[in-house]
Amino acid sequence: MYPVFSRSVMRRFDALRLAFALCIITSASNLQAPLYSALAAKDGVGVGATTVAFACYVFGIIPVLLALNGLSERVGRKPLILAALVLCLVATTLTLVAPGILALGAARFLVGVATALASSVAPGYMYDLFSGGDHRRAANWVTAATSLGFGLGPAVTSLFLLQASSLTPPSFPLYLLAAALAFVLVAGLRDDAARSSLAPLARLPFFPAGSLIFGWAILLAWGTVGLVIAILPSALQKHGLSEWSGFAVLATCSCGVLFQPLARLLPSRIATRIGLLILPVAYALIAWGALHGQFAGVLAGAVLASSACYGFIYLGGLSAVLALGEERRAAASAGFFLMAYFGFILPVMVTGVLVDLWGHQVALFVYGMALTIGVLAVIASLHDEPATAVS
Questions:
Q1: Start-end ranges of CATH 1.20.1250.20 in the chain?
Q2: Dihedral (Cα; 178, 52, 215, 370), 10-degree rounding
Q3: For 59-87, how does the pLDDT look when each residue is reduced to its tens digit (9 = 90+)?
Q4: N or C end of the chain: which has fewer CB within 10 A?
Q5: How far apart are CA 40 and CA 47, in angstroms?
Q6: Residue 322 and residue 342: Cα distance in Å, rounded?
Q7: Largest Cα span, the chain
Q8: What would the pLDDT profile of 145-199 be if each residue is shown by its tens digit?
Q9: What kind of architecture, by CATH, is found in domain 204-391?
Q10: Distance (Å, rounded) from C-alpha 64 to C-alpha 73?
């Protein structure tokens, strides 16, 4: 009895160590988000330049997603998690010692590579640390850890900025300590995955018939997330609220986990439609609150957006794509996330240029119109074909 109990406890502790590392890795991605407008002002650049620096995150992710997604089969999973933590340490150190837009862009590129390395192996590694069982338990742990991380970093930075304005708040050195601890914890994990020097490095994304429409849905969803992270701080700065933007990022990135149990009960197409219907309403609340200095409106819209972006659309779309992919599920999943990451940068960069040209009000209105048209088009294209249950 006791040895079995001990093994169960150790498996859970090992999973907790990996979950902590994943949370720390994703925390690095938005750690500087509340400082975007301050860094732009320091360097004398506009919102467009800030969105380019923001987009460097995806420029780091996509090459790994396309060319190195088979690396774990050559070197194992643990080395990739450790490499990701080292990259996050280097990235955060850059923004600590040389705060500015250039350092921000370089840091986001490094964190993008780190996120891609970690996310490519996290579900399988977590499943093995639990020694098998239900795949959904491992997926739920990974989803919860990463979703919390994306929002936790900026929220902690905002907490410190509310105490004292700084381009290098205490959240940065605090992060370095947490990342070092995560490195030590992961270094002691077992990694029993088979390795082969002949394993292919690249597995190109695959779009099964009928799957592209779900890619467009997640593109629209994550475009809205990117706007909250990259452009919202400069809009809130006009009302003296930029220090609060980290809490909006937390709500947008992390609250969606609360809606995932409901999304799992629905067929994938219905879940995706619900998320798409929520998205324009959520965006309207965010834009209204940002333009009028009503942070409560921003926060309410952020929670709604999270329910769509990381709840209904994310789970519904991914489940449908995996079902359509059949024997090529990994490649189909890569195609889905490729669309998601393009959504994360392209709409944001265009909106950033519009902000510099015509101001926040016009830019946010144009984005809102484009989002609404896109949502209506995707909903109209989601025909009532046999639906897949969300898993």
A1: 1-203, 204-391
A2: 130
A3: 999 888 888 777 777 888 899 999 999 99
A4: N
A5: 7
A6: 19
A7: 69
A8: 888 898 999 999 999 999 999 999 999 999 999 999 999 999 989 887 777 777 7
A9: Up-down Bundle (1.20)
A10: 14
Cα separation, 290 vs 288, in Å, equals 6
pLDDT band at 91 (very low <50, low <70, confident <90, very high): very high
> In this predicted model, which residue has the larger pLDDT, 221 or 139?
221
Class of CATH domain 1-203: mainly alpha
Give the position of tokens 């705060």: 99
What gap in Å lies between CA 40 and CA 49, rounded to an integer?
8
Whole-angstrom Cα distance, residue 300 to residue 291?
Answer: 15
DSSP collapsed to 3 states, the chain: CHHHHHHHHHHHHHHHHHHHHHHHHHHHHHCCHHHHHHHHHHHCCCHHHHHHHHHHHHHHHHHHHHHCCCCHHHHCCHHHHHHHHHHHHHHHHHHHHCCCHHHHHHHHHHHHHHHHHHHHHHHHHHHHHCCCCCHHHHHHHHHHHHHHHHHHHHHHHHHHHHHCCCCCCCHHHHHHHHHHHHHHHHHCCCCCCCCCCCCCCCCCCCCCCCCHHHHHHHHHHHHHHHHHHHCHHHHHHCCCCHHHHHHHHHHHHHHHHHHHHHHHCCEHHHHHHHHHHHHHHHHHHHHHHHHHCCHHHHHHHHHHHHHHHHHHHHHHHHHHHHHHHHHHHHHHHHHHHHHHHHHHHHHHHHHHHHHHHHCHHHHHHHHHHHHHHHHHHHHHHCCCCCCCECC
Residue among 225, 340, 320, 306 nearest 271 (CA): 320
Q: Are 114 and 28 in contact (CB under 8 A)?
A: yes
Residue type (1 letter), 352: G
Q: Which two tokens stand for residue 305?
A: 């957006």
Q: Are 288 and 297 in contact (CB under 8 A)?
A: yes
pTM equals 0.86
Q: Which residue has tokens 């093994």? A: 7
* Residue type, position 91, single letter: A
Q: What is the mean pLDDT of the chain?
A: 87
